Amino acid sequence: DVKVTQSSRYLVKRTGEKVFLECVQDMDHENMFWYRQDPGLGLRLIYFSYDVKMKEKGDIPEGYSVSREKKERFSLILESASTNQTSMYLCASSSDVETQYFGPGTRLLVL
Amino acid sequence: DQQVKQNSPSLSVQEGRISILNCDYTNSMFDYFLWYKKYPAEGPTFLISISSIKDKNEDGRFTVFLNKSAKHLSLHIVPSQPGDSAVYFCAGNGGATNKLIFGTGTLLAVQP
């Protein structure tokens, strides 16, 4: 079974803090993705990566950056957290076929 | 520009009856569609998919129908069970990339 893990289930941070969200997958997938889920807006793609050290902007990259130094790990960075970044963050991975497999999510609250 | 639309935010169905969740899309380049199920405080789990060359795919109680001319797909769950209560997202995958475009989700409540 594919396993995608995220470093935290719940996080509370203050405005202006730097926040790191870590994601690890154990299936040697090339592709990794970061989404945020907000009520009424569905899942929106923040960034994705097709290979180590490679990244592509998704639909809402503003205020975020990513890092992929190893194939199994994809990190999402909030350089200076703001209250409008309070959300559920979901990491996913996939091989060359279409299906993406998701982690359990990190619920981030920015005060 | 919302390429994948789920116009019903919620749906309530009696246990044992059929649940029908609908999804419309605008991008004719989509060649693969997926349905995901999401419980609160968990990540989405893959449920069923369909290629654009097919019009139906079935897996147990779940069947997905695709009408390409109408750019419409639907997920049928029969019989519905209380454990099916969750948010359901449809998604389309377009061609050269592995990006998925998700709808906004439909909250299904199956009443015992």
How is the secondary structure organized here?
The complex is a heterodimer of chains A (111) and B (112).
Chain A: E1 4-6, E2 10-13, E3 19-25, E4 31-38, E5 42-49, E6 56-57, E7 64-70, E8 73-78, E9 87-94, E10 101-102, E11 106-110
Parallel strand pairs in A: 2-11
Antiparallel strand pairs in A: 1-3, 3-8, 4-5, 4-9, 5-6, 7-8, 9-10, 9-11
Chain B: E1 4-5, E2 10-14, E3 19-25, E4 30-38, E5 45-51, E6 56-59, E7 62-67, E8 72-77, E9 86-94, E10 100-102, E11 106-111
Parallel strand pairs in B: 2-11
Antiparallel strand pairs in B: 1-3, 3-8, 4-5, 4-9, 6-7, 7-8, 9-10, 9-11
Protein described:
The complex is a heterodimer of chains A (111) and B (112). Chain A has 111 residues and is mainly β. Chain A is built from no helices and eleven strands. Chain A has strands at 4-6, 10-13, 19-25, 31-38, 42-49, 56-57, 64-70, 73-78, 87-94, 101-102, 106-110. In chain A, the strands form two sheets. In chain A, strands 2, 4, 5, 6, 9, 10 and 11 form a seven-stranded mixed beta sheet that branches. In chain A, a hairpin with a 6-residue loop joins strand 9 and strand 10. The relative contact order of chain A is 0.34. With 112 residues, chain B is mainly beta. Chain B is built from no helices and eleven strands. Chain B has strands at residues 4-5, 10-14, 19-25, 30-38, 45-51, 56-59, 62-67, 72-77, 86-94, 100-102, 106-111. In chain B, strands 2, 4, 5, 9, 10 and 11 form a six-stranded mixed beta sheet that branches. In chain B, 37% of the residues are buried. The mean pLDDT of chain B is 93. Classes of the chains: A mainly beta (111), B mainly beta (112).
